[in-house]
Every structure is written in structure tokens, then in C-alpha cells.
Design brief:
Layout lengths: L1 H20 L5 H10 L1 H7 L2 H18 L1 H6 L11 H9 L3 H29 L4 H21 L4 H20 L12 H15 L18 H20 L5 H11 L6 H26 L5 H7 L6 H23 L10 H35 L1 H5 L8 H11 L6
Helix pairs in contact: 1-4, 1-15, 2-4, 3-4, 4-13, 4-14, 4-15, 6-7, 7-11, 7-13, 7-15, 8-12, 8-18, 9-16, 9-18, 10-16, 11-12, 11-13, 12-13, 13-15
Length: about 400
């Protein structure tokens, strides 16, 4: 059983590395690819290999998706808000530090996620009916907290609601996108948190990148990684929530302007913890929290400890890869920012078209216009998370909007 486990883990880690490093490609994409050839893989390698590969791909993706978001400022659904402090460090010549902080946050999350998974499996299944009923109210409270304690509650409320309307529109008419479904998240979040930021980015040249990186104090590291892991674990178990919601909550308690390093650790921890708790939810209550878990749900699953071990092994491989790639920031040193930003924006536009067609371009344009507003009125960009939170809140409260 060890040989299939290692083979599946290494194959999944390779796929997760590709999905993590290519902007706009998610681990769910790799899950669909593996699932499309599952009869061949199961017949030749066996179900345990395929299951381990799926888990390893998801975990590896959560480590490596920080690289394009830091170096290029192109977010995906799991790194949208993290782009702001990470890309800011990159422009200060500290991209290597940002990526290393993200890797450490994800590694800490693996340590926290193991006891959290056991605790959730023991305590939460019996409480699941009450949890399902109250999720909409919980998110509504979080949204109100984000608005009330922002720099300008009126502007934050307006941005939150307008971005929420755009999110409702995008998901309601997602069938107009070529690939439908969650593919609209790519142009939606890239416009709000990627293109909008790049359009207002400084010109000049990318500063020389330092290779020296220091970690936060142990006390701060423990606090931020635990907070991020807890947030990621909660949204990993609760129905209808994504890691974007966890990042929005973290932004309300960890100031990503004043405490950038801690925020990067926390959001990366949330991203990785979400993957492990999603696996626990699949085994404990049969809920499928993402595309990878949905793919696993179609298989005859091996034991939970086996897949948990695959996730831990993948995390070790991914941690090493992330640290290795953190040193490549120097490639961008002294590169003209105007040209780099234009190349990235063009890439996002092309990818939006390839994934979603004309509908994706419309969503990207509308999201970019909304994403420009926070900088103009000097409020935190986390208000734009209404694009994800409003649809989830309304659907959780039983309002038929999607």
C-alpha cells in the first residue's frame, strides 16, 4: 500500500504544481483531467493511486498558488485578498520573503489541521443541521462587521453591495460562460483584485529582489497561523463557503496594511487548512466542498488515514518546491513595471476569454471598474469580497438568486 500511496502523491504533486503556478488554473481543473481518464488509471494503477493523486494535487496547489499572485499580482479564488500585501512586498524587493512567509503559513496549517480535523469529525456531525441553518446569519454578521469597522462604513457598504450585485449577476448567468459554473470566478476576482490594482500600480522598474527573508516572531507566527487555520477549517466544513470568505474574515482582524507579513501567513494557512478539513468533511458527513472532493466522491475511497498521509507527504514536497521557487524573484529585477503590468493584464484578458468567452470579458471589465473604487475613496479592498459573500449569504438564507 505504501508504493501506490507514494506514486499517487508524486503524480498529484506534479499536477498541483502546474495548477498552482499557472494563473487561472485551479486544482479542480486537474481533478477534472484525472477524472476524465479515471477508468484507465483505476484499471492500471488502482483507485488508491488516483485518490492519493487528487488529494496531493489540491494540497500542493495551496502552497504554490502564492507564486504567481506575488510575482505577477494575478489572483485566484483562494489568494485574492493576499495579493495586496504580497505584491506590495514584491515591489519593495521582498518577493522572496512573501513567498517564504506563505510557505511557512501553509506548513503550519498542516500541523494545526490534523488535530482540528479530528476535533471536527468527533464534534460537528451531530450539530450539522443547526450549522446548515445558521450559516447565512453567521456570514451576515461577518459582512456587517467588515463594513462597520472599515475606514468609511458608507463607502464600504456601497462597494460591498455593488460588488455583491455583480457577483449575483455573474453566478446567475454563468451558463453564458463557455465553461460555466465556477469558471466565472477567474474574471470576477481577477478584475476586482488583479487588473484594478495593476492599472494603478507604480511605473518605473521592478526593484532588485533580496534573497534574505526573516520570519515573524514565534508568538506572532503561532497566532496568525492558528487564526488562519481556524478560519480555513471553519469555511472548509461549513456549506457554501470558499476560502475567499475566510480571507475576508481574516482581513477584519489582521490589518493587511500594517501587519502584512502576519496576514500572508494567516491567509496561506487558511488556504491549506481548508483542503484538509474538506477531506474530513467528505469522510465524516459526505459533503463535497470543492471539485477535488466531488471527484473523490465518485470513487471507492481508501481509508481516511491513507489519504491524510498523502496530503501530509504532498505538503512536504510542496513546501520544498515553494522555498526553491521563492529564489526566482530575481528574474523580475529591474524589469519595467509598465511593460510587465501590461503583459499580465493582457494574459488575464486572454485567459478570461478562453475560459468564459465574451461573458468573461464583460465580467472582467465590470469587476475592474468596481475594483478601482476602493483606492479612489481610500477604503480597504476587502469590501469587494461582497462579490462572493452576497450570493452565499442570500442562497444560505433560502433566497433563490442563483
Amino acid at each position: 500500500m505504501i508504493a501506490p500511496l507514494i506514486a499517487g502523491t508524486l503524480a498529484g504533486a506534479a499536477l498541483g504544481a502546474v495548477s498552482g503556478l499557472v494563473p487561472g488554473v485551479h486544482a479542480n481543473t486537474m481533478a477534472g483531467l484525472l477524472l476524465s481518464v479515471s477508468p484507465l488509471l483505476v484499471g492500471t494503477l488502482g483507485t488508491p493511486v488516483l485518490a492519493a493523486a487528487l488529494v496531493a494535487a489540491l494540497v500542493t496547489h495551496t502552497f504554490l498558488d502564492c507564486v504567481p499572485s506575488t510575482f505577477l499580482g494575478v489572483p485566484d479564488a483562494d489568494t485574492a485578498v493576499m495579493v495586496l500585501p504580497a505584491h506590495a512586498l514584491c515591489l519593495e524587493g521582498r518577493a522572496s520573503e512573501a513567498v517564504r512567509l506563505s510557505a511557512v503559513g501553509s506548513a503550519c496549517a498542516v500541523l494545526w489541521a490534523l488535530p482540528l480535523s479530528a476535533l471536527f469529525i468527533l464534534l460537528l456531525p451531530s450539530l450539522q443541521p443547526a450549522i446548515d441553518w445558521g450559516i447565512g446569519l453567521i456570514l451576515l454578521v461577518v459582512a456587517c462587521y467588515l463594513v462597520v469597522f472599515s475606514e468609511s462604513p458608507s463607502w464600504s457598504a456601497g462597494i460591498f453591495c455593488v460588488s455583491g450585485l455583480l457577483g449575483l449577476f455573474a453566478f446567475r448567468y454563468s451558463y453564458l460562460a463557455w465553461n460555466g459554473g465556477s469558471s466565472v470566478l477567474m474574471p470576477l476576482l481577477s478584475g476586482l483584485f488583479g487588473v484594478a490594482v495593476l492599472l494603478s500600480a507604480a511605473e518605473g522598474r521592478m526593484p532588485p529582489q533580496e534573497r534574505i527573508a526573516s520570519l515573524p516572531p514565534v508568538r506572532s507566527l503561532v497566532r496568525t497561523s492558528l487564526a488562519g487555520s481556524a478560519a480555513g477549517a471553519i469555511v472548509g466544513w461549513l456549506p457554501g463557503l470558499s476560502n475567499a470568505a475566510a480571507n475576508a474574515v481574516l482581513a477584519s482582524v489582521i490589518d493587511y496594511g500594517d501587519e502584512r507579513r502576519g496576514y500572508i501567513v494567516a491567509t496561506s494557512a487558511a488556504n491549506t487548512a481548508n483542503a484538509f478539513i474538506g477531506l474530513a468533511a467528505l469522510y465524516a458527513i459526505g459533503r463535497m466542498r470543492n471539485g477535488v472532493m466531488a471527484a473523490l466522491g465518485t470513487l471507492t475511497l481508501p481509508s481516511y488515514p491513507m489519504l491524510l498521509l498523502a496530503g501530509v507527504l504532498a505538503a512536504a514536497v510542496a513546501f520544498g518546491l515553494t522555498l526553491l521557487l521563492s529564489g526566482t524573484a530575481g528574474i523580475f529585477s529591474k524589469m519595467p513595471l509598465r511593460h510587465l503590468n501590461r503583459i499580465v493584464i493582457l494574459f488575464v484578458v486572454v485567459l478570461s476569454f478562453l475560459l468564459c468567452g465574451p461573458f468573461g470579458l464583460f465580467i472582467l471589465g465590470a469587476a475592474t471598474l468596481i475594483g478601482r473604487v476602493p483606492a479612489l475613496v481610500e477604503v480597504r479592498r476587502v469590501s469587494c469580497m461582497g462579490a462572493v459573500m452576497v450570493p452565499v449569504i442570500l442562497s444560505s438564507l433560502g433566497v433563490a438568486v442563483l
